[in-house]
Amino acid sequence: MYTLILGDKIKLEIRKQGINGEGIGYYNKLAIFVPGAILKEKVNCEIIEIHDGYSIARLDSIERPSTRRITPPCKYFDKCGGCQMQHIEYHEQLKIKQSILIQSLRRYTSVNENEIEIKKTLGMKESFNYRNKSQMPFKNTNFGLALGLYEANSNQFVYVDECMVQHAEVNKINKIVLSILIKHKVMAYDSINKEGILLNLVTRYLESTHSASVTFIVTKYDEILEVIAKDVITQLPYVKSITYSINRKSNPLMFGKSLKVLQGDSYIVDHFADLEIKISPDAFHQLNSKQMTILYDEVLKAANLTGNEVVIDCYSGIGITTLQLAKAAKIVYGIDYSASSVRDAIDNAKKNKIQNVEFFTEHVEGALPRLLLNGVVPDVVIFDPPRTGLDQSMIKELLKAKIKKMIYVSCNPSTLAKNLNDFSSVYNIEYIQPIDMFPHTASVESLTLLTFKK
Predict the structure, then answer these.
(1) Global model pTM greater than 0.90
(2) Mind telling me the catalytic residues?
(3) pLDDT tens for each residue of 400-423
């Protein structure tokens, strides 16, 4: 059998779409991942990486293009790497995301996916300009201070003056803030020359209240930030909160230990359903406001509360789901490890006069077993974990607890499938509902309803 080496030129039939949006073909039964290729295409490509069990190839040319291939509208598509599927018709993207869930079930579970209802992906009518928040790094370039993104799996900076998936107001705010920084000759942090202070710009815009927050992530405080903040407020009066956070390049987290207000308030306000929601700059909030409505409606529909239930909302963030559930439940416990998110959640409960909630600032892996041990008997448990999924020790506790109904909101089909395999001996997988929270990317969000096998 012929063994591939780096630089080999091969021809492939693309058999499926991978979880990162790449096309996958097979060469002598070896999986070849080809970013930019689409299902059913015939492509010519070059091997650029070789790993145990698979290889990665660069797309050179397309002999037979897919009928679903389109010209990406973003001028940074080939460089940025943030949108892995802009070259695919949007309706086809929705089908691919449903397919990725099916592939994950086949690979990681012993469950027959034909016996599970995997619904069609709920997409958007307008699939661009949906992100209400940006986190963009600063860079000193030959043309001066710039904002942009880094190529996927690279330290290569890409200047981006307008991101097509970010809300138009986010793009506008970023441009004006950048121009003000340039006017005041503020520089990005240069680790070699130990110059400059700017690391990142975090911008959030809420359409429901036409309000925004701006946070400068810096290596140290400089009084010029006060001047800049006043300039921003003058030019953009709907920016209601300007803050800064001191961080270090060695810290993988975006924010430092604290936030300091430069101008305005320490938070902004969103209107969601009939709730008024306070959101701090470093608190978690869904990035797609329109799809957030659909996601939370699906959670409420799956919970199907009557008013007598005890509910535990894990990874509860600023408490939007918790407060909605509380209106139809006996009591809801919210758990989140982010102190800023829980502070907002407690304030949001008070602001909306909802009393049948209790929040815990703690990791779910510790708080949930303790609640169960202390006699809390939940009728419904909701999860919205990070990409790593649920901890094995917690899954064991849940299996012992025999909870009637669980709702699993996932952003990672692979870890979802692995966790569902663990639950499948004790729980029925009633259905999986994919929801497109991030159009034109390979991200697959979904909601799974699990019911206890009686």
Answers:
(1) yes
(2) 411
(3) 999 999 999 999 999 999 999 999
